[in-house]
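Appendix B. One record, verbatim.
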Amino acid sequence: MRDINTINRKTKAAAVLILVTILLLISNYFIGLNSKKTNENMKAIYNDRLMVSHYIFQYTNAIHQINTYSIQVNTSDFEKQNFVLKVLQNTSSIDKKYLSTVLTAKEKKEFKSFQNQ
């Protein structure tokens, strides 16, 4: 009778340990899924918000370069024109990168008005 009771207790203890192990594995799996979603969301925020602000900074820098170079007195009109064309070619590559990001409706509207200027 003692053997049956000890076997019964050991079986119950083993079943509880197996159940706890299964619960831990399931919990681990869902934590992994949540961390994967969080990483994807962080990448989306980086690509769609921070990169957009970087592109806007590059536009501002290009416009500032054109303004400062066009004011210079000691350069010829031909040099100024070549410089402006070079900067505008760079901004067209920025346009493509900017449009590849996910933009809000307001950003799309303002970007279209910026391109039309």
